[in-house]
């Protein structure tokens, strides 16, 4: 009897691999997902809980209603959205330029991989270093804390991600499409506008959405460079939860969660890499 | 206006690799010329230099009196059909076909008129609004052709355009392409590694090997009179025999091991020089071993007759390949199968013969 036969014999008695899994595996799977989403579930449940300290859970939408009166939270949410949009635009434009520079520029010997590496290395660096560096840098400049330092910090943070997403598209781009356009009379600029950009659009939009969500949720850099006049939502929430958690914090957290989920879902749908 | 395409002593280096070496040829207006060779022979690089995607390291490319060696691809009156078609995936069929006209600022109504006409020419009328991914491979191929032709280029460059199609479709398209080319009178420069495709369509074939031209000629010249060992081997099946040239008074021969192949005496060859000969399998005919062969024609040519033994018979349907050994030297001949009963049996004695003019002496 050959090895293949004996394997087939053993597997053959149990043709559907899921049959043997049983309820143990199902339970483990369920617990894993509960573990992953448990903390989020707690926040969502708390945002609809009427009794603040009680052991009973009573449904209410009261905290969502009173959120409207909390100008500090709403103001920070609005600021975070504004920062997110500005960061998204700058980061995406730079990412397109960087992606083309890295893959298309005729780099001198071995300089190309080094340049690529240096763009992506920040992905692995501790973000707190950025926070400290930016704080010192803008203080020395006399600019201090506020909107501009936050935007600059966020762009530094989101750019490697955005470049990665756009770069995957540039590398996967069929060069003959651009050649075909040129062959038919399109100059380089027209070729870029008519052929290259439309072909890359899914990656560019995905990079923009990622940049927005990353900036929207960012805490560490914001913490170092935000000031009294400009406090993004994550920093605002952190400031509020130290002593006693106000129920509106749960409500706004759920709103932030929804915004992030919607954007992430859009980005995932567009992904082609 | 007639403009002949001139490729003058063109060389192309990629770093330290020489892709094309000193290639020269001219293509008259309205001719169908094929660059044929194995992969890596420089045929695509040559085509890309004519299109303007590569700049020659040395040499010039001219169209009529116009030097286009360094002209940008978007300013040249050439069009290219790409191997993978390179249709714009985010544009409709109509936008793809009309792209070249849009780039030339042709007004929209004239554009749609010419797109419709072009789609009729390729027998796909009315598909302007379809997406590229809704088309079959054969339809995409035609749309790519329409897109390249609509700008009325002086030279159409085709880079293995039929390579991705299945055999039957490819054969149909070969005929259609040739008809279209004759109808439009546009110069076609066609790149392929498929020798049958080249023989079917071309007015002239240029055979490239390792970046250099091996031979150029009409399909008949290339097939019937190969000049080099490479060409004889690359085009069709053949019996290649390597030997030495021996001159003996008025007669001459190439001694190939156990077989002497008589040839016309060569003024260019010296006694003892290494030479190869090529004899196509279908030029050789089989006799019964009793004496003379049956000859291959009307009998008044000089026939070469040899005795041997049938080694193997390979039946392939319409033809049979018959392997013959002559004192250890093997020759293959091809016979039309009219009646399977008449196929020889392996091990039997036989004679083979062919007309001496079908012996090709290969000098390179």
UniProtKB/TrEMBL annotation, chain A:
SUPFAM superfamilies: MetI-like. The lineage of its organism: Archaea, Methanobacteriati, Methanobacteriota, Stenosarchaea group, Halobacteria. Keywords: Cell membrane, Membrane, Transmembrane, Transmembrane helix, Transport. It comes from Natrialba chahannaoensis JCM 10990. One of its GO terms (biological process) is transmembrane transport. It is found in: Cell membrane. Belongs to the binding-protein-dependent transport system permease family. CysTW subfamily. This is Binding-protein-dependent transport system inner membrane protein. It is a multi-pass membrane protein. The chain crosses the membrane at residues 27-48, 77-102, 114-138, 150-171, 191-212, 219-237, 249-268. CDD domains: TM_PBP2. GO terms for cellular component: plasma membrane. Gene3D superfamilies: MetI-like. Residues 77-267 form the ABC transmembrane type-1 domain.
From TrEMBL, chain B:
The keyword Cell membrane applies. It catalyses: tungstate(in) + ATP + H2O = tungstate(out) + ADP + phosphate + H(+). PROSITE patterns: ABC_TRANSPORTER_1 (PS00211), ABC_TRANSPORTER_2 (PS50893). It is an enzyme of class 7 (translocase). It is a peripheral membrane protein. Gene3D superfamilies: 2.40.50.100, P-loop containing nucleotide triphosphate hydrolases (3.40.50.300). The keyword ATP-binding applies. Residues 5-235 form the ABC transporter domain. This is Molybdate/tungstate import ATP-binding protein WtpC. It comes from Natrialba chahannaoensis JCM 10990. The lineage of its organism: Archaea, Methanobacteriati, Methanobacteriota, Stenosarchaea group, Halobacteria.
């Amino acid at each position: 009897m050959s090895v293949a036969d004996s394997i087939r014999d053993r597997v053959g008695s149990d043709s559907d691999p899921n049959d043997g899994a049983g309820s143990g595996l199902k339970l483990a799977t369920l617990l894993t997902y509960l573990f992953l989403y448990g903390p989020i579930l707690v926040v969502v449940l708390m945002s609809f809980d009427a009794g603040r300290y009680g052991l009973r859970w009573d449904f209410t939408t009261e905290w969502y209603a009173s959120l409207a009166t909390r100008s500090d939270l709403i103001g920070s949410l609005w600021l975070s959205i504004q920062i997110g949009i500005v960061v998204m635009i700058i980061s995406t434009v730079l990412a397109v330029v960087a992606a083309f520079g890295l893959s298309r520029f005729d780099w001198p010997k071995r300089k190309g991989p080094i340049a690529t590496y240096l763009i992506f290395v920040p992905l692995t660096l501790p973000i707190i270093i950025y926070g400290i560096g930016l704080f010192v840098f803008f203080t020395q400049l006399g600019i201090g804390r506020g909107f501009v330092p936050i935007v600059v910090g966020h762009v530094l943070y989101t750019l490697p991600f955005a470049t990665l997403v756009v770069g995957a598209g540039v590398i996967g781009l069929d060069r003959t499409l651009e050649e075909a356009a040129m062959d038919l009379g399109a100059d380089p600029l027209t070729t870029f506008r008519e052929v290259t950009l439309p072909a890359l659009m899914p990656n560019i939009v995905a990079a923009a959405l990622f940049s927005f969500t990353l900036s929207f949720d960012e805490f560490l850099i914001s913490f170092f460079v935000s000031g009294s006049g400009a406090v993004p939502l994550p920093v605002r929430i952190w400031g509020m939860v130290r002593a006693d958690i106000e129920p509106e914090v749960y409500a706004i957290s759920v709103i932030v969660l929804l915004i992030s989920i919607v954007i992430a879902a859009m980005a995932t749908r567009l992904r082609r890499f | 206006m007639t403009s002949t395409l001139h490729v003058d002593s063109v060389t192309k280096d990629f770093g330290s690799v020489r892709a094309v070496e000193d290639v020269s040829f001219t293509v008259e207006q309205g001719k169908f010329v094929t660059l044929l060779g194995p992969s890596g022979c420089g045929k695509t690089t040559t085509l890309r230099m004519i299109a303007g995607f590569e700049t020659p390291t040395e040499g010039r490319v001219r169209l009529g009196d116009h030097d286009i060696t360094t002209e940008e691809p978007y300013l040249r009156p050439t069009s290219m059909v790409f191997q993978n078609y390179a249709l714009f995936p985010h544009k409709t069929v109509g936008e793809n076909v009309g792209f070249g006209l849009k780039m030339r600022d042709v007004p929209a109504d004239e554009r749609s008129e010419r797109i419709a006409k072009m789609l009729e020419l390729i027998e796909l009328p009315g598909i302007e609004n379809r997406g590229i991914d809704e088309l079959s491979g054969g339809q995409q191929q035609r749309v790519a052709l329409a897109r390249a032709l609509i700008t009325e280029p002086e030279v159409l460059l085709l880079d293995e355009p039929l390579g991705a199609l299945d055999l039957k479709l490819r054969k149909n398209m070969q005929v259609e392409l040739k008809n279209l080319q004759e109808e439009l009178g546009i110069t076609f420069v066609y790149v392929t590694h498929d020798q049958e495709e080249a023989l079917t369509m071309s007015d002239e074939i240029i055979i490239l090997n390792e970046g250099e031209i091996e031979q150029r000629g009409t399909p008949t010249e290339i097939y019937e009179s190969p000049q080099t060992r490479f060409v004889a081997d690359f085009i069709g099946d053949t019996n290649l025999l390597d030997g030495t040239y021996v001159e003996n008074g008025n007669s001459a021969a190439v001694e190939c091991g156990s077989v002497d192949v008589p040839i016309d005496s060569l003024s260019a060859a010296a006694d003892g020089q290494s030479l190869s000969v090529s004899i196509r399998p279908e030029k050789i005919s089989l006799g019964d071993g009793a004496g003379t062969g049956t000859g291959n024609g009307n009998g008044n040519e000089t026939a070469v007759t040899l005795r041997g033994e049938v080694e193997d018979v390979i039946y392939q349907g319409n033809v049979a390949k018959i392997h013959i050994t002559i004192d250890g030297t093997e020759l293959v001949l091809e016979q039309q199968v009219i009646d399977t009963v008449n196929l020889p049996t392996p091990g039997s004695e036989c004679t083979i013969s062919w007309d001496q003019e079908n012996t090709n002496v290969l000098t390179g």
